[in-house]
Specification:
alpha/beta, binds flavin-adenine dinucleotide, D-Amino Acid Oxidase, Chain A, domain 2, FAD/NAD(P)-binding domain, globular, single chain, 2 domains
């Protein structure tokens, strides 16, 4: 089949890879001059099935209120009357029950674990390099209360068969020696040895090259404006470079997918949740993180990517704004300097923002729509890098008429109709 993929982020490019491998003729269209230049560009670098949890969890509404008044807060809500934001917040709050949390979490873990296995297989098959490491991730707790409260997370990890280690502060410093001089600031940590790290932009760029060699066409600098329908099928899409037809279309426009499907009367509850990162060159490797260290207090992840450190986090509700306030950079700088002081050259920090395509239930939207030849692969929120390969693999199976290796019926957009 001739397939057009809308969007060349990590989700679009992995989709192209698996669809091309399944024997289809694939074209990827993106408004940017190359792959992975929007949200997939400078994320925190964690491939973390172990931390696959929905934001919407019991207790979050109270925690969120506290965060709003905290210095270096992980959550910022800009005062807004944007109906999309208000609706998304209310849908998210409705998912904060114990029952909804359990359902949403099980869906996320299913796709994230499968995705990690797909990534490992892809690495084995292609030899792709992306500053990857397979040394787990470590969540550090600054207060005894946080540390004492990990019971619920541990129970979930146990139930899911996910390997974990509970470490005291000495244990944390032994797996992450860069913490030796700051270990008095932490009381302990939770390590997930099965998690991985890597540069999502490098991965996507390299995979796009491999996909091109496998016959995938990439049309960059091409804005997608709207679909043209014929009955309950998409006939074509209108782009800034003309109208393009295909047998099948895959929507992978990240946070902008709702704008495209709106033309079709499809209500996709994906909202852009803004996050920030800085990337600094390492000047003292002994002080730098070895893998990812997640500071639970500020919800900031610090990841070693080759000779750089990526520091990423924060969640801001601010529509599609991509402004870069100095205050947010200060929070990221504070986090890394507080725990890994002197490891990186802050004077050369590259400050970045990206819009996470976030569903209110935390689970991505993968699969068919009510238009016969339109499929979606989007809404991966905080975990698009973690879930990309698995999402793309199941999408390819669904489009090709093969049975996916994991259950997918509850990942499609139809789940919101209930
Ligand atoms: C600060 C931060 C930290 C993060 N950390 C992690 C992490 O550690 N681990 C993890 O798993 N995930 C992380 N994420 C999430 C992850 O980065 C995203 O889920 C993922 O990049 C989404 O990929 P995507 O392909 O869906 O979207 P995108 O990468 O945004 O791709 C969408 C593409 O569609 C194109 N497009 C959009 N509209 C149009 C149009 N009209 N016409 C043409 N092209 C268009 C864009 O140019 C873009 O290339 C983080 C995100 C942020 C912001």
């Amino acid at each position: 089949m001739n397939i057009i993929i809308l969007g060349a982020g990590v989700v679009g490019v992995t989709s192209a890879w698996y669809l091309a491998k399944a024997g289809h003729s694939v074209t990827v269209i993106d408004r940017q001059p190359a792959a992975a230049l929007e949200t997939s560009f400078a994320n925190a670098g964690e491939v973390s099935p172990g931390y696959s949890s929905p934001w919407a969890a019991p207790g979050i509404p109270v925690k969120a209120l506290k965060w709003l008044f905290m210095q270096h807060s992980p959550l910022i809500i800009q005062p807004t009357l944007d109906p999309a934001a208000l609706r998304w917040i209310s849908q998210m709050l409705r998912n904060c029950t114990a029952q909804r949390y359990a359902i949403n979490k099980s869906r996320m873990v299913r796709i994230a674990e499968y995705s990690r296995d797909c990534l490992m297989a892809l690495r084995e098959e292609t030899g792709i390099q992306y500053d990857q490491r397979t040394q787990g991730t470590l969540e550090v707790f600054r207060t005894q209360k946080q540390f004492d409260g990990i019971g619920k997370d541990v129970a979930v990890l146990k139930a899911g068969g996910v390997a974990y280690e509970i470490l005291d502060r000495e244990g944390c410093a032994s797996v992450e020696p860069g913490l030796s001089s700051s270990k008095d600031k932490i009381v302990g940590g939770l390590r997930l040895p099965g998690d991985e790290t890597g540069d999502c932009f490098m991965f996507t760029t390299e995979l796009a090259k491999l996909a091109e060699q496998a016959g995938v066409k990439f049309l960059y600098d091409t804005g997608i404006t709207r679909p043209i329908t014929e009955g309950n099928r998409l006939k074509a899409i209108v782009t800034t470079k003309g109208t393009m037809e295909a047998d099948v279309f895959v929507g992978a426009l990240g946070s902008y997918t709702p704008k495209f499907v709106e033309h079709l009367g499809i209500d996709l509850p994906v909202y852009p949740i803004k996050g920030y990162s800085i990337t600094v060159p390492i000047i003292d490797a002994a002080r730098a993180p070895v893998s990812t260290v997640m500071d639970e207090t500020h919800k900031i992840a610090m990841t070693r990517l080759g000779d750089r450190i990526r520091v990423g986090g924060m969640a801001e509700i601010a529509g599609f704004s991509k402004s870069l306030p100095a205050k947010r950079q200060a929070t990221l700088t504070h986090s890394i300097e507080d725990l890994f002081g002197g490891a990186g050259d802050q004077s050369q920090a590259k400050f970045w923002t990206g819009l996470r395509p976030m569903t209110p239930d935390g689970t991505p939207v993968i699969g068919a729509t009510r238009y016969q030849n339109l499929y979606l692969n989007t809404g991966h929120g905080t975990l698009g890098w973690t879930m990309a390969c698995g999402s793309a693999r199941v999408l390819s199976d669904i489009v090709s008429g093969n049975k996916p290796e994991i259950e997918t019926a509850d990942l499609a957009i139809s789940r919101y109709a209930a």
